[in-house]
Amino acid sequence: MNQIPDVLYADRESTTWLILGASRGIGLEFVSQLLARGERIIATVREPWASHASALWGQAGSDHGRCQMYICDILSEDSIIKFVSQLMGIRNLKIDYVVISAGVLRYPNRATELSFDEFAFHLHTNTIGPIICAQKLLQTNIPIGTITFMSSDSGSHGNFREMEDGFAAYAASKSALNMAIRHMAAELKRKDDDTIILAMHPGEVATDMANIHVTWEVHGIITPQESVSKMVDVIQSKGIQHSGTFWTYENKPYVW
Known about the structure:
InterPro entries: NAD(P)-bd_dom_sf, SDR_enzymes, SDR_fam
Oligomer: single chain
Helix content: 25-40%
Number of helices: 6
Protein name: NAD(P)-binding protein
Distance between the termini: 40 Å
Pfam families: adh_short (PF00106)
GO molecular function: oxidoreductase activity, acting on the CH-OH group of donors, NAD or NADP as acceptor
Organism: Bimuria novae-zelandiae CBS 107.79
CATH superfamily: NAD(P)-binding Rossmann-like Domain
């Protein structure tokens, strides 16, 4: 992108949100709702030609450029570094909220059956990529208010979901993400960095990633619209005293 509209500059009144993994599902819904709220958005997709990104390209072309599009493949450190370098070139940029929504679930992924590559793919997509994205952003001079990671109740140690057959790699990747989030928050506190780090369980959201046939009954399925609407309010309600904590879309603390 050669020109950045003034609406993305930090000396304006509305807030700026960075949505990583915005081409579908929860990430795309964040973009839609934030545009409706009059916010500024920087949104990323892995590939510009991805068919599932077409809805986001439509969003980016509307509302006078308040949604700016970038490419960031969280499976590639080079892609992450290039994207962050592009952000560093935006004059006066201040990011109020970062939402790292990129993630994957390849079902089933049983510990007794999954391959090395299948396990590695879940870890790279759900754990390593999101943490490195946040790390590279934090290493810039861009002021960042809050970084929220999309986690899952499947990653909780304190509330192990034994009935989730076929979720071993997914749950392990989210559990590893949770631990890294806690360490990241603690490290920032030791550095007197006021960036807030949060983990979020979005609920049982009816997205294409969740469009699988499982052997147990899933209760409380909600739409992306309901989940994101509530998560925006939760994210905006948290202060530095909440950094390193895990929340549900209903604004309830969740056990690690």
